[in-house]
Amino acid sequence: MAFTLAPLPYANNALEPFFDAQTMEIHHDRHHNAYVTNLNAAIAGTDLDNQTIEEILANVSKASPAVRNNGGGHYNHDLFWNILAPAGKGGELSGDLKAAIEAAFGSVDEFKAQFKAAATSRFGSGWAWLIVKADGSVGITSTPNQDNPLMDIAEVKGTPILGLDVWEHAYYLKYQNKRPDYIDAFWNVVSWDAVAKRFAAAK
Ligand code: MN
User: Fold this and answer.
1) pLDDT tens across 106-133, in order?
2) Which CA distances in Å does 153 have to 57, 69, 168?
3) What is the CA radius of gyration of the chain?
4) Distance from Cα 173 to the centre of ligand 1, integer Å
5) pTM of the model
6) How far apart are the CA of 9 and the centre of ligand 1, in A?
């Protein structure tokens, strides 16, 4: 059963001025689309063909590099689009999620500082994540390329509930080499409502 590319849940320009329309269009319509196309080609006719993306990622060490790269690429971008919202439309960080972040990091500011450090120091291409660990607490990790914390090969495993793409294709048109500025802009377009739902589901 082939995977499909869902449309962005908002207009290409909905995250302006933080994430620009041209980057969103290219990122979704070309990059994410290519991961879906290449994932489908990599699983066609194999026993992965009828598995969910989560099942594929959980045993990705046994799969080909194409499945690892494109399966991760599909899952990661699907999550990314859905934890973003136009500025002011994503709700506030509150409730159980805020309490879990404060318990893990001491404060929301400290969480953001540690997340930024993880996202900034990820050399080359990859992702920074807020994950729910097996014990229900939250933590920060980062992964190279299109790996993610659901993969059996991940150094730190957990359920990702917030992710930031730090590939240059995610920010170069607007931010060029200034990845830290892109990370700062990200907080303006996070949908805390969406992250809270993922947190509740993951616990
Ligand atoms: Mn990307």
Assistant:
1) 999 999 999 999 999 999 999 999 999 9
2) 9, 12, 24
3) 16
4) 13
5) 0.97
6) 16
Ligand 1 centroid–CA 103 distance in Å is 30
The alpha carbon dihedral of 54, 58, 62, 67 has a sign of: positive
The DSSP secondary-structure symbol of 84 reads B
CA gap 77, 96 in Å, rounded: 25
Token pair, residue 110, equals: 């400290």
C-alpha 141 to ligand 1 mean position (Å) = 17
Q: How many CA atoms lie within 13 A of 72 on its CB side?
A: 27
φ, ψ dihedrals at 13, nearest 5°: -95, 10
Q: 137 C-alpha vs ligand 1 centroid, how far in Å? A: 27
Nearest residue to 118 via CA among 148, 142, 143: 142
> To the nearest 5 percent, what fractions of the chain are helix, strand and coil?
50, 10, 35
192 and 109 in contact (C-beta within 8 Å)? no
Compute, in angstroms, the gap from residue 52 CA to the centroid of ligand 1.
21
